[in-house]
Specification:
single chain, 163 residues, alpha/beta, Alpha/beta knot, 18% strand
Protein backbone atom coordinates (compact mmCIF):
# COMPACT_ATOMS: atom_id res chain seq x y z
CA UNK A 1 0.00 0.00 0.00
CA UNK A 2 1.04 3.56 -0.68
CA UNK A 3 -0.09 6.61 1.29
CA UNK A 4 -1.09 9.76 -0.57
CA UNK A 5 -0.79 12.82 1.67
CA UNK A 6 -2.50 16.08 0.71
CA UNK A 7 -1.51 19.06 2.82
CA UNK A 8 -4.47 21.45 3.06
CA UNK A 9 -5.94 20.86 -0.42
CA UNK A 10 -8.12 23.69 -1.70
CA UNK A 11 -9.93 22.46 -4.80
CA UNK A 12 -12.59 19.79 -4.25
CA UNK A 13 -12.42 18.45 -7.80
CA UNK A 14 -8.70 17.70 -7.42
CA UNK A 15 -9.26 15.95 -4.10
CA UNK A 16 -12.17 13.98 -5.57
CA UNK A 17 -10.04 12.85 -8.51
CA UNK A 18 -7.22 11.90 -6.16
CA UNK A 19 -9.67 10.00 -3.95
CA UNK A 20 -10.82 8.03 -6.96
CA UNK A 21 -7.19 7.25 -7.86
CA UNK A 22 -6.54 6.10 -4.28
CA UNK A 23 -9.60 3.83 -4.32
CA UNK A 24 -8.54 2.29 -7.65
CA UNK A 25 -4.92 1.73 -6.52
CA UNK A 26 -5.86 0.73 -2.95
CA UNK A 27 -3.74 3.58 -1.62
CA UNK A 28 -4.58 5.31 1.67
CA UNK A 29 -5.48 8.99 1.39
CA UNK A 30 -4.47 11.37 4.18
CA UNK A 31 -6.12 14.80 4.22
CA UNK A 32 -4.37 17.33 6.43
CA UNK A 33 -6.70 20.12 7.52
CA UNK A 34 -7.79 22.80 7.13
CA UNK A 35 -9.32 21.95 3.77
CA UNK A 36 -10.40 24.64 1.34
CA UNK A 37 -13.86 23.06 1.03
CA UNK A 38 -16.41 21.00 2.89
CA UNK A 39 -15.83 17.26 2.58
CA UNK A 40 -19.51 16.91 1.66
CA UNK A 41 -19.07 19.36 -1.20
CA UNK A 42 -21.04 18.14 -4.22
CA UNK A 43 -18.04 18.69 -6.54
CA UNK A 44 -15.87 16.45 -4.38
CA UNK A 45 -18.47 13.68 -4.39
CA UNK A 46 -19.00 14.12 -8.13
CA UNK A 47 -15.28 13.85 -8.91
CA UNK A 48 -14.91 10.79 -6.71
CA UNK A 49 -18.22 9.40 -7.90
CA UNK A 50 -19.15 6.12 -6.27
CA UNK A 51 -15.52 5.43 -5.42
CA UNK A 52 -15.61 7.71 -2.36
CA UNK A 53 -17.33 4.99 -0.30
CA UNK A 54 -14.51 2.52 -1.09
CA UNK A 55 -11.80 4.98 -0.17
CA UNK A 56 -9.43 4.45 2.78
CA UNK A 57 -9.32 8.10 3.86
CA UNK A 58 -7.97 9.57 7.11
CA UNK A 59 -8.38 13.16 8.27
CA UNK A 60 -5.73 14.90 10.37
CA UNK A 61 -6.14 18.22 12.17
CA UNK A 62 -2.63 19.37 11.21
CA UNK A 63 0.83 18.18 10.15
CA UNK A 64 1.82 17.12 13.67
CA UNK A 65 -1.36 15.07 14.10
CA UNK A 66 -0.61 13.35 10.81
CA UNK A 67 2.95 12.52 11.88
CA UNK A 68 1.70 11.15 15.23
CA UNK A 69 -0.96 9.00 13.57
CA UNK A 70 -0.83 5.23 13.94
CA UNK A 71 -2.16 4.78 10.40
CA UNK A 72 0.57 6.79 8.66
CA UNK A 73 3.36 5.78 6.30
CA UNK A 74 6.80 4.54 7.31
CA UNK A 75 8.64 7.07 5.10
CA UNK A 76 7.71 10.33 3.41
CA UNK A 77 8.61 11.67 -0.03
CA UNK A 78 7.89 15.35 -0.66
CA UNK A 79 6.88 16.18 -4.23
CA UNK A 80 7.79 19.76 -5.02
CA UNK A 81 8.57 21.95 -7.99
CA UNK A 82 11.50 23.12 -5.84
CA UNK A 83 13.02 19.63 -5.72
CA UNK A 84 16.36 18.94 -7.36
CA UNK A 85 16.20 15.15 -7.54
CA UNK A 86 13.93 13.49 -10.06
CA UNK A 87 11.25 11.18 -8.70
CA UNK A 88 12.44 8.70 -11.36
CA UNK A 89 15.55 8.16 -9.22
CA UNK A 90 13.67 7.68 -5.93
CA UNK A 91 13.67 4.26 -4.26
CA UNK A 92 10.00 3.95 -3.40
CA UNK A 93 8.96 1.11 -1.12
CA UNK A 94 5.71 -0.35 0.13
CA UNK A 95 4.05 1.77 2.83
CA UNK A 96 5.77 4.98 1.66
CA UNK A 97 3.92 8.28 1.80
CA UNK A 98 3.84 10.70 -1.14
CA UNK A 99 3.33 14.24 0.16
CA UNK A 100 1.82 17.05 -1.92
CA UNK A 101 1.14 20.69 -1.08
CA UNK A 102 -1.97 22.64 -1.89
CA UNK A 103 -2.83 24.19 -5.23
CA UNK A 104 -2.04 27.85 -4.49
CA UNK A 105 0.90 27.90 -2.10
CA UNK A 106 2.38 24.41 -2.07
CA UNK A 107 3.86 23.14 1.16
CA UNK A 108 5.10 25.24 4.11
CA UNK A 109 8.82 25.96 4.38
CA UNK A 110 9.06 24.03 7.68
CA UNK A 111 7.89 20.84 5.96
CA UNK A 112 10.25 21.51 3.05
CA UNK A 113 13.08 21.68 5.57
CA UNK A 114 11.90 18.60 7.45
CA UNK A 115 11.68 16.48 4.28
CA UNK A 116 14.67 17.99 2.44
CA UNK A 117 16.44 14.62 2.16
CA UNK A 118 13.47 13.03 0.39
CA UNK A 119 12.29 15.97 -1.71
CA UNK A 120 11.74 15.01 -5.35
CA UNK A 121 10.44 16.68 -8.47
CA UNK A 122 8.45 15.50 -11.46
CA UNK A 123 10.54 16.82 -14.37
CA UNK A 124 9.02 19.62 -16.40
CA UNK A 125 10.14 19.99 -19.96
CA UNK A 126 8.94 23.57 -20.37
CA UNK A 127 10.47 25.71 -17.60
CA UNK A 128 8.22 28.68 -18.48
CA UNK A 129 5.21 26.87 -17.05
CA UNK A 130 4.61 26.87 -13.29
CA UNK A 131 3.55 23.30 -12.54
CA UNK A 132 1.28 20.38 -13.30
CA UNK A 133 -2.22 20.17 -11.87
CA UNK A 134 -2.23 18.57 -8.40
CA UNK A 135 -4.34 15.56 -9.36
CA UNK A 136 -2.17 14.96 -12.45
CA UNK A 137 0.98 15.08 -10.32
CA UNK A 138 -0.47 12.64 -7.79
CA UNK A 139 -1.45 10.24 -10.58
CA UNK A 140 2.00 10.32 -12.17
CA UNK A 141 3.74 9.88 -8.83
CA UNK A 142 1.44 7.12 -7.58
CA UNK A 143 1.86 4.92 -10.62
CA UNK A 144 5.63 5.40 -10.74
CA UNK A 145 5.90 4.52 -7.05
CA UNK A 146 3.65 1.47 -7.55
CA UNK A 147 5.76 0.35 -10.51
CA UNK A 148 8.90 0.51 -8.42
CA UNK A 149 7.33 -1.28 -5.46
CA UNK A 150 6.04 -4.08 -7.70
CA UNK A 151 9.32 -4.40 -9.63
CA UNK A 152 11.30 -4.34 -6.38
CA UNK A 153 9.43 -7.44 -5.29
CA UNK A 154 10.06 -9.16 -8.60
CA UNK A 155 6.33 -9.71 -8.92
CA UNK A 156 4.46 -10.05 -12.18
CA UNK A 157 1.05 -8.51 -11.72
CA UNK A 158 -1.92 -9.54 -13.82
CA UNK A 159 -4.35 -6.69 -14.14
CA UNK A 160 -7.89 -7.06 -15.45
CA UNK A 161 -8.19 -5.84 -19.03
CA UNK A 162 -4.39 -5.70 -19.57
CA UNK A 163 -2.74 -8.32 -21.74
Amino acid sequence: MLHIVLHQPEIPQNTGNIGRLCAITKSRLHLIHPLGFEITDRHLKRSGMDYWNDLDVHHHDDWQSFKNSSVGPKRLWLFSTRGENSFWNASFEEDDGLVFGNESSGIPVAIHDELAATKVVIPQFDPKLRSLNLSTSVGIATYEAMRKVIMGKGVCVDLPGVS
